[in-house]
Amino acid sequence: MFDYQTLKNYLFKLDPETSHSMAEYVLRTTKHLPICFDLLKRKNFIINDRLKQNIFGRDFLNPVGLAAGFDKNGTMIEAMPVLGFGFVEFGTVTPQPQEGNPKPRLFRFTEEESLENSMGFNNDGMIAIQKRLLKLYPFTLPIGVNIGKNKTTPQETAIEDYLDLIHGFKDVCDYLVINISSPNTPGLRDLQNEAFIRTIFSTAQQITSKPILLKISPDLEASQAMNLSVIAVQNGASGIIATNTSIDYTVLTNAKKIGGISGRAIQDKSFYIFNEIAKELYGKTLLISVGGINSGAEAYKRIKAGASLVQVYTALIFHGPSLVRKMNEVILELLNKDGFDHISEAIGANRR
Ligand SMILES: Cc1cc2nc3c(=O)[nH]c(=O)nc-3n(C[C@H](O)[C@H](O)[C@H](O)COP(=O)(O)O)c2cc1C
Do residues 300 and 334 lie in contact, with contact meaning Cβ atoms separated by under 8 Å? Predict the structure, then answer.
């Protein structure tokens, strides 16, 4: 049977971005191979009522989603049931297409099961991606779009980029995410301030009733992350996603120090910030935990801390296509162990 650990030996000899392009090609191909698609979906996609939640008016059949950045252009959404994901977030999409930062800009740290990237929002731009989504939406899995400003857009007019993107995507997704927490666009993280968050969320309410979430950096002071999240929610945000990648290079020996770190190296840091936000916002808004989640046990820990949903990116690279199935199997085992009939009983169980 297919052995990802063996395949990984070959894949990891290639430059990480080349491996990613190959994975994208394979995933895009699955939709043209219905027998293969169905077989893999049956294997990896766990269907169990105990994991099912209705959120934002959509059924999330399991709580494990694909984090932003893996599918920058929304080209792999149709393949995601094959990997077992319960929902997909694509992007970051910017209004205009952009190439991103110079290569190499993606690095693996195999021992640490971590990545460092300085991609810089390489993407096809709003118009091309919106066309792609028009053909696809609504999809069997809930779809989120993660949006960001173009590198060349001045800070003073950054808000216009976000408002244009909300207009552009509001009818072709189930939720939107304001990304002001990626480290690879100069000045982007400076938008993580009260005034910007207040303005963007209150203005967005006038454009759409679609849920709009805020994605937070793990490098903020915990109190600041919590305050900004509260302000977002008070001004209409439907949820918080914590966290993005980190530029705290102490978490990784031999970091390149040019981009954001993800994976196991940020697991503790990311959980810490998530937990601080959950102390204040659990029960008041939807919380999504992301950052270093690499097992069902880690996902379950985040769920008990208050996450209704979790996301993964880096662990998928190191653990392969069976990761999400295994995570969901373990979550079910842990629900049994704790005597919970349904995931909703586990969400925030450590907060009550
Ligand atoms: C190569 C790469 C590209 C990413 N691009 C984006 C992005 O465009 N937008 C975004 O919000 N997050 C992006 N992320 C961050 C992830 O969505 C996630 O928040 C972070 O990697 C932590 O999760 P993980 O440890 O499971 O990877 C990217 C991560 C990686 C590794």
Answer: yes
Task: Work out the angle at residue 290's Cα, subtended by the Cα atoms of residues 288 and 291, and round it to the nearest 5 degrees.
Answer: 160
DSSP result, 233-299: HHTT--EEEE---B--GGGSTT--SSSEEEEGGGHHHHHHHHHHHHHHHBTTBEEEEESS--SHHHH
User: Which amino acid, residue 112?
Assistant: E
Q: Which of 276, 258, 251 is nearest to 107 (CA)?
A: 258
Rg of the chain taking only CA atoms, in angstroms = 19
Where the chain has pLDDT below 50, the residues are none
Count of all residues that appear for the chain in the document = 352
Tell me the per-residue pLDDT of 58-78, one tens digit each, with 9 for 90 and over. Answer: 999 999 999 999 999 999 999
Distance in Å, CA 1 to ligand 1 centroid? 30
Nearest residue CA, atom 24 of ligand 1?
291
Q: With a 6 A CB cut-off, is 146 part of the ligand 1 pocket?
A: yes
95 three-class SS: coil
In what helix (H) or strand (E) does residue 106 lie, and over which residues does it extend?
A: strand 106-109
Indicate if 182 belongs to the active site.
yes
φ/ψ of residue 338, rounded to 5:
-85, 0
